[in-house]
Input
Amino acid sequence: MTADLSQLLSGVRAVLLDFDGPVCSIFASYPAPRVAAELIDVLRQRGADVPPDAASEPDPLEVLRRADTAGDYGVTRAVEEALCAAERRAADTAEPTPYGREVIVAARQAGMQVAVVSNNSAGAVMAYLTAHRLAGYVSPVVGRAFADPARMKPNPESILRAVRALGRSPDKCVLVGDSLTDIEGAQAAGVRVIGYANRPQKVEAFRKAGADVVVTSMGTIAGVLIDSAASSSDPISP
Output
């Protein structure tokens, strides 16, 4: 696996990272089910129909998707605004992913560009990166399109926006993600993809989905990048 990873990373010039998972656990101290319940309350306050299965939805992003199906932009906007505020609060207590920082720093030291492409809001991502002194290493940050959840991954739009901002061709970029939506979005964008299987059951699922490489620790990626940085003659500093 390390050999496959080394070969993959040697052929790319930019690393695109999903945020919640590869970089941090944004809802570590402000649990996602609690945020989802708060968003359900927003739906009810706006008079939207909330079926029983939606009322127990634990994923805030899925609540946002459901809000959009109501066909009322005002409802979608209200849920979006509440989610953005919750994500900003959550970013203050997000738990860094082991070796997530090392991946970012080592990639830059190896001469690669680093971007974040997330279904979370760009404001929350930037708040975290700034607080953890990583903002200078990462550009661009492409977050969720405001109140338009159909454009979230697996839609490849956000990934392609990052690729264009980096000035790279898709085949010179790799996305590191911890969900099937990351893998599907990367494939649709023509970007190579590393599946970060932070739960055992994800390993086989990511392989079946066609991830180029599957790792169970960001440390595996960091180790390859650190070796690459040690031999790089053209490091990039923030």
